């Protein structure tokens, strides 16, 4: 017992010390928002987007010594971003603090930067100082990865091929990501234990078979075929991990494969368990922050489930007929069921979504992927390097056919797909219960009795109060999500939910996918009574298509622009947002104040066409303004019919705090007590504008910045506000005010 306690204490101290070192490398606040000349190597494949490119650099020299040996994430807003991995450049850069969107659930940018050991971020300032100092080495791992990236870029399913061969997922479309997640096979997209094991296992078998036939002299026979196979498999696993730039998941998989493989050479009874324990210990000693990674826990749980199922129980079937010859199929089925159940629980905990459909799909796809797809793709890429491109094109066509076939099913509506918020305590109990069922019978006399007790505790009322539907904190609560430069506001209680705007969306990512859907699941919101889109700008309506596909939405409210949008489906019922719109729910009234087409001979265009909604609750009110500018504000402020109706307790600041909005006449008419800026703290637009901040200060309006505070939660009974940065995390920056 003392040994276990000492180990836990040592682990806590080691993680704390490592975290301190990691935080000490972050770019200090004193050099942020300043221009620096740096000389740095490009250490990641540049991701090219329509308006900019993004990449990682390792700083060798700088005008500030505090930046030397730091890894930075830089963006370059240039029309021609012809950068290559391994080049050395001199850049004129401006740094920004590592500050990202923080919501109740979904992607945590600051946690990602901390986990990946990226110490700062910034952007390149267009200047004559930006010069290429050293080209990419002709023969190097970097040049090979760059060449493979460019060659695979011409394929229809380029994102999938790049992810499977070199570990780059930047070009995987949102459509494919959603499909893989709904099927419960997202793990196939990231090079990890499964991929390393497939390639290493393939070369283990081939090299062992060849060595047994080619090693004819006595000197070569000193090396057993199994030993030669294990050495070869570790070398090939290392090469595969190198192609993936030794990302953290591939490092873990490589260590685990090699340690376990060499451990099995001892032929001891408990060699597998001992090797797994040593591998995990090495992983945590080398990089203790692995515990922050979801993939680490999924790999850890999957490996232990496999070991318990395979080695925990001895088969009593001694028959040598066709039944016993097919026993390996039953073992594989047993393993797949056990892994699916265990990872189903983990997926609910981390992603608020899981699919038992993955059980069926994995039974079919894992063998297909393991024995056909990945080896075929691997060898097709090798042939491509030799000038033969036809096999790779065949693989591309096969993947397209496979994706089209899978997309034909209505996966989202499947009863096997679960969108549930699972509290941490409940998830831990369920994982323990599943592990107990896999234990050897000799180790636990009454496993079902113990599992029954755990489940009884799990479903005991104090622990199940928040199991599926966390209670609303007030009759009506307003959530202003942190979606970067964009807007998404949820008004909800136990009975009703209305969402105003959806944040941005690009081909590779979207606020709806990264922040909104996970947070809505966490809040227990399964459907929307109304989705209101203020106007057509991407940072307001970009995620609408995803939400329409993923959620049941009773009413869609938008302007006439919706009819020409790419995601609008003919025949879909939509309500036009105009001055006559009124939606009534118990304790909530939503009224449209703008646009009022009767006041103008021509329709409002652009930002000024935003749908302005006043939300009236029992005691207070909220004004949602979209991106209206001074012309629309003047029309609202001078309309005598709106004099009292415009008054609101809380104002979502128009146009993210741009100087083209928030005019004095409008602000005086609204007479708000609180104003909320919905924008990124360090956006390149530099919002909110300092003049706008001064106007609100002049009128004594308290201001809250979502980019500073993270997701805001507002109780509409008491107008009490809480924010996500109040929850302390070692990697999380302090809130700014």
Overview of the molecule:
The strands form five sheets. The protein has an eight-stranded mixed beta sheet, with no helix packed on it. The chain has a seven-stranded mixed beta sheet with strand order 18-19-20-21-22-23-24. It folds into four domains: 2-134, OB fold (Dihydrolipoamide Acetyltransferase, E2P); 174-314 and 365-411, no CATH class; 425-464; 477-726, Ribonuclease Z/Hydroxyacylglutathione hydrolase-like (Metallo-beta-lactamase, Chain A, 4-Layer Sandwich), CATH 3.60.15. The two termini are 48 Å apart. The protein has 737 residues and is an alpha/beta fold. Helix 16 (424-438) runs antiparallel to helix 17 (447-458). It contains 25 helices and 26 strands. The radius of gyration is 29 Å and the shape is globular. Residues 313-319, 461-468 and 470-474 have low confidence and may be disordered.
- Average residue pLDDT: 84
CATH topology of the largest domain: Metallo-beta-lactamase, Chain A
Sheet/helix structural class: alpha/beta
Large-scale geometry: globular
Which features characterize this protein?
15% strand, alpha/beta, 7-stranded mixed beta sheet, 737 residues, single chain, 4 domains, 8-stranded mixed beta sheet, 26 strands, OB fold (Dihydrolipoamide Acetyltransferase, E2P)
Secondary structure elements and their pairing?
Elements lengths: L1 H23 L10 E8 L4 E2 L4 E10 L8 E6 L11 E9 L12 H7 L4 E5 L6 E4 L6 H12 L5 H9 L7 H10 L9 H22 L3 H4 L3 H19 L4 H17 L6 H16 L7 H19 L9 H4 L1 H25 L2 E2 L1 H29 L4 H18 L9 E2 L5 H15 L8 H12 L2 H4 L12 E4 L8 E4 L4 E4 L10 H13 L3 E2 L1 E3 L5 H4 L2 H7 L1 E2 L2 E3 L16 E2 L5 E4 L2 E7 L17 E5 L4 E4 L5 H8 L12 E3 L11 H7 L3 E4 L12 H9 L3 E4 H4 L2 E4 L5 E3 L14
Parallel strand pairs: 4-6, 12-14, 13-15, 14-16, 16-17, 21-22, 22-23, 23-24
Antiparallel strand pairs: 1-3, 1-5, 2-3, 3-4, 5-6, 5-7, 8-9, 10-11, 10-25, 11-12, 18-19, 19-20, 20-21, 25-26
């Amino acid at each position: 017992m003392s040994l276990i306690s000492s180990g836990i204490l040592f682990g806590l101290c080691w993680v704390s010390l490592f975290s301190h070192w990691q935080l000490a490398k972050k770019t200090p606040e004193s050099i942020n928002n300043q221009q620096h000349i740096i000389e740095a190597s490009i250490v990641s494949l540049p991701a090219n987007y329509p308006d900019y490119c993004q990449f990682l650099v390792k700083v060798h020299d700088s005008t500030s010594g505090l930046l030397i040996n730091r890894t930075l994430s830089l963006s370059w807003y240039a029309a021609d971003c012809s950068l290559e991995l391994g080049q050395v450049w001199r850049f004129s850069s401006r740094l920004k603090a590592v500050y990202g969107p923080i919501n109740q659930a979904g992607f945590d940018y600051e946690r990602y930067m901390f986990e990946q050991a990226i110490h700062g971020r910034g952007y390149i300032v267009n200047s004559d100082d930006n010069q290429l100092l050293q080209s990419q080495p002709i023969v190097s791992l970097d040049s090979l990865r760059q060449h493979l990236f460019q060659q695979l870029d011409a394929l229809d399913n380029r994102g999938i091929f790049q992810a499977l061969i070199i570990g780059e997922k930047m070009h995987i479309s949102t459509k494919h990501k959603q499909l893989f997640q709904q099927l419960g096979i997202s793990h196939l997209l990231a090079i990890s234990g499964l991929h390393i094991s497939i390639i290493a296992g393939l070369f283990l078998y081939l090299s062992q078979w060849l060595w047994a036939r080619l090693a004819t002299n006595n000197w070569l026979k000193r090396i057993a075929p199994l030993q030669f196979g294990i050495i070869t498999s570790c070398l090939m696993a290392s090469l595969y991990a190198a192609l993936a730039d030794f990302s953290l998941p591939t490092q873990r998989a490589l260590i685990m494969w090699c340690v376990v493989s060499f451990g099995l050479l001892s032929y001891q009874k408990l060699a597998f368990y001992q090797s797994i324990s040593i591998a995990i210990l090495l992983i945590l000693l080398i990089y203790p922050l692995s515990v922050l990674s979801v993939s680490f826990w999924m790999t850890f749980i999957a490996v232990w489930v496999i070991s318990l199922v395979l080695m925990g129980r001895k088969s009593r079937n001694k028959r040598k007929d066709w039944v016993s010859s097919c026993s390996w199929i039953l073992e594989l089925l047993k393993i797949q069921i056990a892994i699916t159940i265990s990872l189903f629980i983990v997926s609910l905990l981390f992603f608020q979504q899981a699919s038992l459909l993955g059980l069926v799909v994995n039974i079919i796809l894992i063998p297909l992927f393991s024995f056909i797809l990945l080896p075929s793709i691997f060898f097709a890429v090798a042939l491509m390097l030799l000038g033969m491109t036809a096999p790779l094109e065949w693989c591309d066509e096969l993947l397209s056919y496979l994706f089209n076939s899978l997309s034909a099913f209505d996966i989202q509506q499947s009863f096997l797909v679960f969108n549930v918020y699972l509290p941490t305590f409940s998830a831990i109990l369920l994982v323990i219960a599943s592990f107990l069922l896999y234990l050897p019978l000799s180790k636990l006399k009454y496993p079902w009795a113990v599992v029954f007790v755990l489940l009884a505790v799990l479903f005991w009322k104090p622990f199940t109060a928040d199991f599926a539907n966390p209670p609303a904190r007030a009759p009506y609560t307003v959530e202003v999500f942190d979606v970067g430069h964009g807007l998404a506001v949820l008004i909800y209680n136990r009975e009703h939910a209305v969402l105003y705007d959806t944040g941005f969306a690009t081909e590779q990512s979207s606020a709806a996918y990264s922040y909104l859907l996970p947070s809505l699941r966490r809040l227990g919101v399964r459907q929307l009574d109304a989705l209101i889109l203020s106007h057509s700008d991407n940072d307001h309506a970009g995620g609408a298509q995803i939400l329409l596909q993923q959620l049941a939405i009773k009413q869609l409210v938008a302007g006439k622009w919706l009819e020409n949008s790419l995601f609008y489906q003919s025949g879909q019922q939509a309500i036009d947002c105009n001055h006559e719109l009124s939606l009534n729910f118990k304790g909530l009234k939503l009224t449209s104040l703008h646009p009022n087409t009767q006041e103008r001979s021509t329709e409002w265009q652009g930002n000024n066409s935003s749908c302005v909604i006043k939300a009236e609750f029992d005691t207070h009110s909220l004004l949602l303004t979209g991106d209206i500018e001074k012309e629309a504000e003047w029309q609202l402020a001078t309309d005598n019919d709106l004099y009292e109706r415009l008054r609101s307790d809380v104002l979502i600041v128009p146009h993210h705090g741009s100087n083209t909005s928030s005019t004095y006449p409008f602000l005086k008419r609204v007479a708000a007590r609180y104003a909320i800026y919905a924008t990124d703290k360090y956006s390149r637009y530099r919002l909110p504008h300092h003049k706008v901040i001064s106007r609100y200060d002049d009128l004594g309006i308290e201001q809250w910045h979502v980019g500073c505070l993270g997701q805001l939660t507002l109780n509409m009974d008491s107008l009490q506000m809480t924010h996500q940065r109040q929850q302390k995390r070692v990697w999380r920056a302090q809130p700014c005010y």
